[in-house]
Design a protein that fits this description.
about 180 residues, about 25% helix, eight-stranded antiparallel sheet, single chain
Length: about 180
């Protein structure tokens, strides 16, 4: 049974045949600009939930956990997402404020990996984010927190049908 499962997995297609071509020499100097461009490409291609990403956190002992999140904004503060400070991820962010984000657009053979530190955004911004959620009824949620990831590394990955995948990595200085 194990061999047939392995064979079935090996037979699944990896990526579409017609993939975009990415030349890192043409990439902008700011990774946020390239991310916005790639997100726009995902939207133009009709890919579902292109703003969804995997967020990986760890607790004080180093045990890692991951879950899907939604990008709320991208600005000078960083890459925004929100959650309850009382949730598992909220507790992990307080214990170990380093995260990895991964956006994956299968239909384009692209992914973007962001690694960085977490900062809590203001109570006012967090309250506004809570109020903007679908189904918001106007009641406050004092545990709701809007976070920003301040990247130290952003890597763009483009699949290639010849398996010579292209990686373009930005290292961001801590004070940038």
């Amino acid at each position: 049974m194990s061999e047939s499962f392995r064979s079935m997995l090996r037979s699944l297609p990896d990526f579409p045949v017609d993939l975009p071509v990415f030349d890192p020499a043409t990439a902008p100097s700011d990774p946020a600009d390239l991310f916005r461009e790639w997100l726009g490409d995902a939207l133009d291609a009709g890919l579902p939930q292109p703003h969804a990403f995997t967020l990986s956190t760890s607790d004080a002992a180093g045990a890692v956990s991951s879950r899907m999140m939604i990008l709320k904004n991208l600005d000078a503060e960083g890459w925004h997402f929100a959650t309850s400070r009382a949730s598992r991820k909220g507790r992990e962010l307080a214990e170990h404020p380093w995260v990895a984000m991964n956006f994956f657009w299968s239909g384009l053979g692209r992914q973007v990996r962001v690694v960085g530190t977490i900062v809590e955004l203001s109570a006012e911004e967090s309250a506004a984010d809570w109020d903007e959620r679908p189904g918001a009824d106007g009641s406050p949620n004092p545990t709701w927190q809007l976070y920003a990831v301040r990247p130290v590394e952003v890597e763009f990955w483009q699949a290639s049908t010849d398996r010579r995948h292209v990686r373009h990595r930005y290292l961001v200085a801590a004070d940038d």
